[in-house]
Amino acid sequence: MLSDEVKSLIHLNLMQDVGSKTVQQVVEVFGSAVEALKVSPENMQKELRKIGSNAPSGLGQRILHYELDRELELIDRHGCSIVTLYDEEYPPHLKNIDTPPLVLYVKGTLKPRDKSSISIVGPRASKNYGAQVSFKLGSELAERGMTIVSGLAKGIDGSAHRGALDVRGRTIAVLGNGLSRVYPPEHRELAEEIIKSGALISEFPMNIDPERKNFPKRNRIISGLTLGTVVIEAPIKSGSLITAEHAHKQGRKVFAVPDQIFSGHSSGCHKLINDGAMLVETADDLLNALPHYMPDISDKQPGIQEKPGQGYLFEPPPVPSEVIVENAVVEYFKTKFGKLTIELQREIQMGSYTGRADVVLLDEKKKLVVIAECKRSGYIGSGVEQLQSYLSGTETRFGLFANSEQPDAWAFYQRHGQNEFKQISRSEFEKGVIGNSTTAKS
Q: Measured between alpha carbons, how far is 72 from 8 in angstroms, rounded to an integer?
């Protein structure tokens, strides 16, 4: 039985052109969704203007997609449950994005173990190569206890879901329409299988059609639910790159699978790799990049057997992966600054953007002393700019950029003023860090 507050949140979610952020503001200003709906449009506009916001016409004039009673009837008829942003069951990774959905319609079940999840995305018009890779990654990651998230579309999405189902793993499909229908209709049977071992979810009211404008919004949920996004066989203009962009902005890992260099079908993947996405050749590549998020495979479903090793999808990697570089930085910090606390994947809040610093050092007061940005060996992208933005945003004085296992190849920085940076020697860096931290000196 839905509470009055949940029904009121669904009512607000039914209003046309009213975003999740606006509804959150309304709930905060008036104390609850129930109370917000009692307020006249004039008073609502007046109160929102006090916090520098405006009520969209759909909210001010109460313009609904359709009536609330119709929505509640559809929810019941299709056996859906409702999870709101204010519920404990709300997926924790999704709650941390810039615009989390206010209401999630769920058909199936969400579980705490879904926190260990990876999204796999790619175009509908995939080749046999991409479909095979997607299926293989989906099955191998699901065997290792990861939940596979995708969008139920034809091509790469469908193959990823089927790979997880093939080993009786968990998978979640995020739809760009309401849950009163399945889109594409060819995937009705696949959707039924997903419901049995995972869930279909949507932020859209039950009877909303799969319109083109819905899918970019849907993509932010796909990436937001997960620790990282794998892009397979995507051309430059693929919608999958939107999902990768969302993942990057959300501070999540971005992975890409390469193809032949002459393949325009994967040109978007190659661009992602050039821009700093991690090249994926095995399921282990991906899991090793998330060492502190390793799933508990003791909770795996019956019938799933852990494999002693995973075979390469392609030839063995010619260079060390990003995690090897990260481990080298950790060992260096342990050797030189043993009294400081090392933390991996530290969330960095910079306005509305939340990033993740690869490795940080903290003093005894939990103050940031050093931020390190780690990239795969030989990476030459915009990692330094990313590091400097973290330093400015947190007012941390010292930074390290590593794209090699060898400390002699690293770049060390000291921040002067808000946005002024000077590259310094390793010895200057070490002296500065020790001088800037009572913990390191004690």
A: 11
